[in-house]
């Protein structure tokens, strides 16, 4: 991608592409081409340097697809900060060039640049995580050389997952910078969930159904409460209030509630019917499994419709919102000027990091059973708290950095987007894969888990309602997550209650 001439762009001789418009000078920060038209570059760039706040943009951003395609005020296209332009003839859909934020100015692979950029990462927080890289080879070596040292192997594999997952997230972010805003956010969130997908796959191979169920709900809670809470707290440390757009919060909170209720359907059905006179337990077990499969398919369809909504029918609204976030980024100029990975280097980094995550996931899962049996760690605490924290490490670091830089719409999209991917994509997908493999993995969760999930969704929805946040709201979300973690720590071990973990409703994690 770097160094290649793209549609509507030409090389400036230094390896970076530049728009052909004579009004844009090389020192001005460019934006990705808007679907509203070319716009007034001078006013847009001046607004970016002045650091206009999002509440000013809310009055001028397009709110419907009609506004985007036909103009929201008197038949004119709505641009940022109230500037207008007559609609372009011949349609607005065309080829979108690589965004300047993602241009590396290079092609191929340059080893020194490659390792330098990876070490620098996206923020000081991610850079601090990179200090843990020596643990990665140590964890892999100990897994093969010291197989009987279960606690040591678990700790090393657990710590090693953090920098490896961070590299997955960073490479996905570098790739996303080259794409249009909404597609980039979706791509970045998807790659950040690779660690979760790999862990679920390894757990499924080992028939660890209870841990998978706990990890599904734990991932949702960790991102929705802990990550969002830290984002609110970090943003509140630099300003009295942080604002975000209602299009992000309303779509996210509505889908969260829908996903939560959908995931609860099999569990509520099982508790309602269980104990009915003359009902064969095996028939009930199969019914719960069938309902779980149906719910998983419906949730997957919901996710596909959500993606279509964001990337096709309403993508102009979200792109405009994210452009406003870029304009108020405290580190915008610094991010534009810093070195970036080429497309080839992004792919290479993803391949390396995904391979390392897979090895570490295998080493981690192997040690879970001895840790539960020998050191008193319960299934609920392992599945609901420990495993999800390492799954979502990359996503959490990215979102926190964005909130610190006043990019709350980006931060919220990563928190809610990652949560929705687990609830609507990853969780249902692993149930369907288990179905295809003949494994009885259901969505029959424990009542404690479902109650905490639904109550947490309601709490987050209330915090998102006013499109503003502060450090107090962030602190309260973190406290709520810690309270759930304490309860999970003291929750009785499912092995002791159920007796076995393989097969049937017990394996489904009901504990009833």
Automatic annotation (TrEMBL):
Residues spanning the membrane: 124-146, 152-171, 183-204, 210-235, 247-269, 289-309, 346-366, 445-464, 471-491
Protein name (database record): Ca2+:H+ antiporter
Positions with biased composition (Polar residues): 1-14
Organism taxonomic ancestry: Eukaryota, Fungi, Dikarya, Ascomycota, Pezizomycotina
Domain Sodium/calcium exchanger membrane region, first and last residues per copy: 150-311, 347-489
Keywords from the UniProt entry: Ion transport, Membrane, Transmembrane, Transmembrane helix, Transport
Pfam families: Na_Ca_ex
Protein's membrane topology: Multi-pass membrane protein
InterPro entries in the record: CaH_exchang, NaCa_Exmemb, NCX_ion-bd_dom_sf
Biased segments, Basic residues type: 23-36
Subcellular location: Endomembrane system
Segments of this protein annotated with the region Disordered: 1-103
Source species of the chain: Apiospora arundinis
Comp. bias (Basic and acidic residues): 37-47
Location, primary (coarse class): membrane
Family: Belongs to the Ca(2+):cation antiporter (CaCA) (TC 2.A.19) family.
